[in-house]
Amino acid sequence: MKSFQIKSFEEYQEKYTLSVSNPDQFWGEIAENFKWQKKWDKVLEWNFSEPKIEWFKGAKLNITENLLDVHLEKNANKKAIIWEPNIPSDEAVVYTYKDLYHKVCEFSNALKSIGIKKGDRVCIYLPMIPELAIAVLACARVGAIHSVIFAGFSASALADRVNDAEATLVITADGMSRGAKLIPLKSVVDEALENCFSIKNTIVFPCIKSEISMKENRDLWWNDVLSGQSNECPAELMDSEDMLFILYTSGSTGKPKGVVHTCGGYMVYTAYSFQNVYQYQPEDVYWCTADIGWITGHSYILYGPLLSGATSIMFEGIPTYPDAGRFWQIVEKYKVNQFLTAPTAIRSLMGYGEKYVNNYNLASLKVIGTVGEPINAEAWHWYHEHVGKGNCPVVDNWWQTETGGIMISGLGNLSPLKPTFAGYPLPGIQPVLLDQEGKEIQEHDVEGYLCVKAPWPSMLRTTYGDHERCRLTYFSHYDGYYFTGDGAKRDEDGMYRIIGRIDDVINVSGHRFGTAEIENAINENDLIIESAVVGYPHPVKGQSIYAFVVCEHAYENADDARKSILNTVTKEIGKIALPEKIQFVSGLPKTRSGKIMRRILRKIAEGDTTNLGDTSTLLDPLVVDEIVKNAI
Ligand code: PRX
C-alpha cells in the first residue's frame, strides 16, 4: 500500500487545505510513492484557455510497472483479479499478481509480434472476461493507446469509434454469454469493419466457442498469436503526458468524442482516490460491478485497485441472473469488503424485495459505494439498511469519464454521511457553483452550475483528433473553469448533492447519451422526417428516452413504425439507447428561428402539462396542443 491513505476526517481537512494552497507540493509528495524511470521536471503546468494541462512533465514511466512489476517482490502470490463468470456453476478464474504479470507480458509480446507499437490505437470490443483486462494492460505495457468499446454497441457505433481513433487493431471475441443469452460479437465486428479502412488485424478470443467466419490475413485467433511468446516483456518507456487511453463518451452535440487520458496523472489520481474513498486495507477483497467498457471499470476495476495492490473482482454477468440474489451470493462467496455499484442496479434489485439480500451473509462489507447517476433517497436508504445493514458508510462517488477519477465523495467511514449527497471534494479538487452569469456563488445552501477551477492529475487532456472540440465543450462556457455539464446543490454544511445534467445529455441506467446522437440515429430511418428526443424520470433507470417523431406520411400501423424505429436505433447505436416511448406528431414545437423548444417537450414527457411556460414565441403554438393531447 502507498503511504497516502488518509486516516481521519481531520486529516482530510488538513490535506485538503494543503492541496489547494500548494498543489505542487501536495501532488509531488503523493507521486513519490510510484515507480518512475525518471522524475518530473515540474509537477504542474496549465492554462484552461487552450486548454493545456501537464502533470509531472518530463517524467518517464510505464503504468504497468506500477501495477504489476512493483508487486512481484512482496505480493506475487496475492490475488490480483478474481473473475466470476456469468453462469455461477462455471469455474472462476483467479490471477495472482505474478500470473497477471506473465499473462500481460505474454500478450504484450503477441501484440508486438503483429507490429503494434507505441502510439498505435487498439480498439477492444470484448465481454467482461479476464482477456479484457489482459488486453488493456498489454496495450499499456507496449505503449499502444487502448480504446475499449462497450460490447453492447452496434456495428455502426463501433465503426465510428474505430474510424475516429484510426485504430489498426480490434481485439474481440466470437461472442459473449450474458444472463441466459448468447450474444454474437465477431459478426458485429465484421459488419463494422466493412467501413473501417485503418484496421490491419483483429485478434479473436474463443469465448463461447461459436461458429464464426475468419477473414484470411486479417483475423487472428488469440491462441495463435500467443503461441510461443515469452512471458517476460520489458515495459515501453512513456512520457508522463503520453496518451494512455481514449474512451468515447456522448455529449450534447454531434458524435461521441474520444476523451483522452494520459499516463502519469491518471496513475497517481486513480490510485490515490481508490485508496482513500474505499479505505482499502491489504487483506481486503474489493468489487466494482461496472463494465470495463465504461470509465468506472477502467479506473476502479483495473487501474486504481491494481496500482494499489488490491484484490479486485471482475464479474461477467448481470445482477438478476440466475436470480436477483446474484450480487449478494458473490459478496458472500468472496467475503467482499468494499462493494461499488450503480443506483439503477440498486433500484432494480429493490423491486425484487429483501428476501434475496437476506439469503446471504453480507457481514464482510465495510464500505458500499454508488456511482454513475444521482441516487434517490429511497434507493439510498434501502442500500444502507439492507445491504450495509445500517453499519456501512455509503460512499456516493460523483465524477465523469472526463475527470478520470472520483471528484466528490465520502472517504470510507471517515466522512459525515448524508443520504443522497456525494459530500465533500477529494483533496486537490476545487468544485465551484456558478450562477447564470458565470459568477462564483460563495454562499452555502445554494444551487448552481458545477464547475472546477483548477486542474487535477486525472483530468482529460483533449478530445482525440479535435482539441478545439475539447476547448469548446469544457473550457469555453465559463472562462477559467472546467464545465461539468451538471447542476449541483451545496448545503449549509458545504456538502454537494448532484442534481443531474443541465445540458442535452440523458443518463439512462448510468449510460450517457446525447439527445442529438439518438435523434441522428432515428433520422436514419427512411420513414422519418425529423425527431426530438428528451429524457424523463424513470423509476429504475433514473432517466428514460422519449422520442417525438415526424413521419413522412400517416401510418396505417403505428406498431410497425415503432418497431422500425427501434430497429434503426439498435442498428445505429445499440439496444442500450432504445427510446421507451415514441410519439408520432405532425410537427415539433419550434421557435421562429427553427430551434426546437425542448423545454416544452421535456415537460410533456414528464407528464407536467399544466405549466408549459411561454409558448408565444413558437412558430405554430397549435402543435403543442396536439402533442399534449396524444402524449403517452
Ligand atoms: O451527470 C453526472 C452523472 O454521470 C455523468 C458522467 O457520466 P460518465 O462520464 O458516463 O461517468 C459515469 C461514471 C463516473 C455526470 O456528469 N453522475 C456520475 N456519478 C454521479 C452522477 N450523478 C450523480 N451522482 C453521482 N455519484
The secondary-structure class comes to alpha/beta
Quantity of strands, as a count = 30
Number of helices: 19
CATH architecture of the largest domain: 3-Layer(aba) Sandwich
The helix content is 25-40%
CATH-derived topology of the largest domain: Rossmann fold
Dominant shape: globular
As a whole number of angstroms, the C-alpha radius of gyration is: 24 Å
Spans of at least 5 consecutive residues whose pLDDT stays below 50 are none
* Mean pLDDT figure: 96
What's the CATH C level of the largest domain? Alpha Beta
Bound molecules: adenosine-5'-monophosphate-propyl ester
Number of domains: 2
The end-to-end span amounts to 54 Å
Strand arrangement, major sheet: 5-4-17-16-18-19-20
Percentage of residues in DSSP E strands: 15-25%
CATH homologous superfamily label of the largest domain: ANL, N-terminal domain
- Major β-sheet annotation: 7 strands, mixed
